[in-house]
Design goal:
By secondary structure, the protein is α+β, with helices and mostly antiparallel strands. 32% of the residues lie in helices and 23% in strands. It is built from five helices and eight strands, in the order ααββββαβββαβα. The strands form two sheets. It has a five-stranded mixed beta barrel. The relative contact order is 0.13. The C terminus is likely disordered.
Length: 195
C-alpha cells in the first residue's frame, strides 16, 4: 500500500505542474517585436492637395502628414489663418503630381479615415520640410508620434529664425499667463508655453 500511495501522490502532485506547463505562453521573440515597431511603407501618386497637411492619392485615399499641423484654410464662415495659403502652395510644390513614399504611423488612420504618415519624395522628408520652413507647427501625440524629436528641433530652429508663420504675431510664442482664449481663438495650445 505504501508504494501505491506514493504513486498516487506523485501523479496528483504532477497534475498542477502539467496544467501550468500547458497554459504557459512563451514571450514573443525580439524579431517579432522589432517587426511590429517598423512602420509599413507604401507609395502613391498625389493628384490633389487639400491644404498644407493633407493630400489625395490617385486611389482617392486622403493622407494626413503626421506630427505636424498647418494653418487652417477658410471654412465654415471662419477666415483663413495666416500662412494657410503659403502652406498649401508649398505642399503642392513638394508633392502634387509626384510619387510619394508613405511611412504609416502606429495608429494608421485618424478619426476622419485619413491615412497618417511621414511622407517622402525621393530623399526629401515632406513633414520636416514644412516645419523647417515655418509653414507648420509640431503636433504630436504620445500614442502616435514618429519623429517628434526631429520635428521639435526643426520647429525650434524655424521659430528662432522667425521663418514663415513664426514671423506673424498670430503665431508668436506667448507666456501661458498672458494668454486670453477669448481674444485669441484657435488651436493655440502648442504656441502657449511658459518660457
Amino acid at each position: 500500500m505504501g508504494t501505491t500511495f506514493l504513486r498516487v501522490l506523485i501523479v496528483v502532485g504532477l497534475i498542477p505542474l502539467l496544467v501550468f506547463a500547458a497554459s504557459y505562453k512563451t514571450p514573443p521573440d525580439n524579431a517579432a517585436k522589432k517587426k511590429d515597431s517598423t512602420p509599413s511603407v507604401s507609395t502613391g501618386h498625389v493628384v490633389q492637395v487639400f491644404d498644407g497637411d493633407t493630400f489625395v492619392l490617385s486611389t482617392g485615399e486622403k493622407v494626413r502628414l503626421v506630427d505636424i499641423n498647418t494653418p487652417e484654410r477658410a471654412h465654415d464662415g471662419a477666415p483663413a489663418e495666416p500662412f494657410a495659403a503659403e502652406a498649401t502652395r508649398r505642399l503642392e510644390d513638394l508633392v502634387l503630381g509626384k510619387e510619394v513614399r508613405l511611412e504609416a504611423a502606429r495608429k494608421e488612420r485618424d478619426q476622419y479615415g485619413r491615412r497618417l504618415a511621414q511622407v517622402y519624395v525621393g530623399t526629401t522628408w515632406v513633414n520636416g520640410t514644412m516645419i523647417e520652413e515655418g509653414l507648420a507647427v509640431a503636433y504630436t501625440f504620445a500614442d502616435n508620434h514618429m519623429r517628434d524629436a526631429d520635428i521639435l528641433k526643426l520647429e525650434h530652429t524655424a521659430r528662432v529664425a522667425k521663418r514663415g508663420l513664426w514671423s506673424h504675431p498670430r503665431w508668436t510664442v506667448k507666456k501661458a499667463s498672458a494668454c486670453c482664449a477669448a481674444a485669441e481663438p484657435g488651436w493655440g495650445p502648442s504656441i502657449y508655453r511658459d518660457a
